[in-house]
Amino acid sequence: MGDRKKIEIEYYDKKAEEWLDKEKIKKKETADFEGFNPLLLDSFRFCYQWLKENCKNKVVLDYGCGNGIHSVPLAKMGAKKVFGIDLSEKSLEIAREKIKKEGLEGKVEFQKMDCEKMEFPANFFDIIFDGGTFSSLDLESAIPELVRVLKPNGSLIGIETFGHNPFTNLKRKINKMIGKRTGWAAGHIFKMRDLDKARQYFNKIEIYFFHLISWIAFPFLNLPGGKLLLKFFEFIDKILLKIPFSRKYAFKIVFIFSNPKGRRDDLFLTSSEDSVND
User: Fold this and answer.
1) Counting CB atoms within 10 angstroms of each CB, which of 49, 107, 138, 234 has the fewest?
2) What Rg do the C-alpha atoms of the chain give, in angstroms?
3) Rounded distance, CA 273 to CA 65, Å?
4) Residue 109: which domain range?
5) Are 115 and 133 in contact, with CB atoms under 8 Å apart?
6) Model-level pTM?
């Protein structure tokens, strides 16, 4: 395993330990490693609505699952089976504890696994959800692997930080200096060129942009009035993001990649019926 991956593992293992120690955080089961519920944000609510409408009775991968914050909702949305993978064992320990508390052991399975070299057979998943893992990866390796394990009629939905806003890029550099981001992640934020790369692998690509200015409210979400401030800025976002030029500078991007190129059901040994045991 390369030094890059070891650094990422050490970083997220440490974040997991810090998360466990933060007794002041309420409802930790619904909080990410930054301490707030992502469903406060329009971007994540959009993702969850799409997943709720599409994942029923489907085999779903929570790609780079971290502490399992998205895995539990996916199971409750009616997914047939949810697999979560991550290289941070300490994060997976938190995720497994959540599943036990929710009584979902038979519905959700966590594995320590490299997202760039997955151990799943080809043609395995109906839906893959990326909750912000791409910046930790080498997409030249990751995207072909995602295509390999995705069924020909499957979809990859993801939410990523977008890397074109000079103000959020400055914030990212500061976060790197104070240890809140790894050097690799700070230097590999998702950009337009990565969308172009995805177009080489998928026939259908849908893009949605969020948080042009509402990211300003993120540090205040756990403070009195923080949620109201966020709602106000998100309202302004909806107006500003109607202007095509502004979209490149959104803080978050949601993408839905479907219909992988060069894929047919008869090309793979694993059939949809045999992918997961009932």
Assistant:
1) 49
2) 18
3) 25
4) 3-20+29-260
5) yes
6) 0.87
